[in-house]
Amino acid sequence: MFISVNNIPVKKGREADFEKMFIERDRVVEKQEGFVSLDILKPGKKRIMGGAAEDLPHEYQVMTRWESEEAFRKWVGSEDFKKSHSREIDKTVFDGQSYLTLYHSVEGAGAQKEMVKN
Fold it and tell me: Measured on CA atoms in the order 47, 58, 98, 73, is the torsion positive or negative?
């Protein structure tokens, strides 16, 4: 599994605007070969064992999971990606530069709950 996390700083008070952008997105990533899932993670809290919770930086994470790094790279190089990321957006929502972090999962170390079919 290959995981891409786009870390996006959002201005305080503009969270609803940012979330709306993703709710109303074109959703072409879902049609890409090798795409597994996408999650939008809200800024959270950091808690060190036994300590008080602290706010994390005001960043959202857009996490996509892919069957492979190759599938992710094909998406990033595709015309669909260019078209999806060229739409007009309100840049005043952001509070700095976003950055990307990329991960490979440790095979055999993860867990997933099986869905029960009725």
Answer: positive
**Cα dihedral: 66, 70, 78, 37 (round 10):** 0
Domains, the chain, in order of start with CATH, read: 2-46+53-104 (3.30.70.100)
Calpha distance 62→85 (Å, rounded):
14
* This prediction's pTM: 0.83
Structure tokens at 8: 């996006």
- What are the 10-residue block averages of pLDDT along the chain, 118 residues in total? 96 93 89 95 85 82 96 95 84 93 90 74
Contact 44, 90 (CB under 8 A): no
For the sheet with 2-9, list strands across it: 35-41, 59-66, 2-9, 99-104
Residue 53 pairs in a beta bridge with 47
Phi, psi of 22 (to 5 degrees): -80, -35
